[in-house]
Amino acid sequence: MAGISLPGFAPLSVIDAVIRQTNAHTEATSTEELVIEAREHVVSKGDSIFGIAQDYKISPETILWANDQLDDNPDMISLGVKLTIPPTTGIYYKWQEGDTLQSVADRYHAKVDDIVAWPGNKIDLSDPKIETGTYIMIPDGWREFVQWVVPTIPRGPAGVLKTTLGPGACDTNEGGYGGSGWFVWPADNHFISGNDYWSGHLAIDIAAGEGANIYAADSGVVVFAGWSYGGYGNMVMIDHANGYQTVYAHLSRIVATCGQSVASGQRIGFSGNTGNSFGAHLHFEVRYLGGWISPWTVLP
Prior knowledge:
With 300 residues, the chain is of the alpha+beta class. It contains 6 helices and 16 strands. The protein folds into 2 domains: 39-139, Membrane-bound Lytic Murein Transglycosylase D, Chain A (Roll), CATH 3.10.350.10; 156-297, Glucose Permease (Domain IIA), CATH 2.70.70.10.
């Protein structure tokens, strides 16, 4: 049935439709209120920085930047630790004496207008002053990370220092197997149990219970086997002689040895919770020509 129309007025059916759309929009926005203040999250079993960030719909980097006690290391969380969760992605910043909006914006690659406009900052647009000690949000701001990583170790007479890298550093790793470039999963499970690959975590955490088998992802030569400094715990690094290297960290026990040739799928150790680790899992890295790449790009 066509809507009733009067001169100068829209048909009633059109008016009804507009009212329904307006009400629907109002109801949606009322249930999705904008979070403008930082919250607190108490770390519980099964948490990871990556997972917490997903729950709060912010980037994992944002959580690291807001919690100095983590030292930019997502593996530094532990049960009961209280984390500050900023309201949006960016830098949660404590205003220092001598700061200006422009200097802070420049330092964190942000825009002054975005800082001033963020409602939680409660900045008076006519007199944008911020008291020393006040926390403000810098939306989409960012800074560099301090990466907690073991350097790539070359095949051959490496000349590595055990005092720098850890007792597992190998003195020499010449000859031996080369990789095919085709990778297999280094654990029986094929899913993530903690942190995924992101700028603050250049690896994936693969689900693997205490004592589970860990395998070489491709053929190569072991260039590190043993305890590693930097939070990796018991670690194996394999050079695949084709530009690729793989790293297996937080192991409970290692069966591979320095200089050993290992085949793709060969057991090299057992999953564990050593080093800076929050629950048993496999920290798995893939490096190519000295740089880190996402393991997802090579795993089947």
